[in-house]
Amino acid sequence: MIAYVVASHGDFSEGIKNSAFMIFGKQEKVESVIFERGDSPDELANKYQKALDQFDADDQVVFLVDLYGGTPFNIASRIVADNIDRMSLVTGLNLSMLVEAFTVRDQDIKQVVPHLEATAKAGVRHLELQNGSED
Question: pTM here?
């Protein structure tokens, strides 16, 4: 089972985790990490370590992070780089991605990561309405 670390600037990660649980049901091995205003990168690294400590040492872990290039991404990418055999990182966190992540967590991490990336992109859509015509 893949474990997930859901991370963001501010409370977004906790809120989206709770929303996903509301839709899909509470999930084990899902930890949210909040990068708060005033936190240092070292404090965020400690929060990540505390989240990872909740998982088994051999768990595959995917970090789902809000923004590419932000501090949550930068710190998580260092952790992933040190554990490339069992960890990955995906940015652009959205609710479609997180709910889908729960459905594929029994698959290999190498299959899950591109699937979640595609799911997140597919979740961005617009409602296209046309004026009805009565002929």
Answer: 0.92
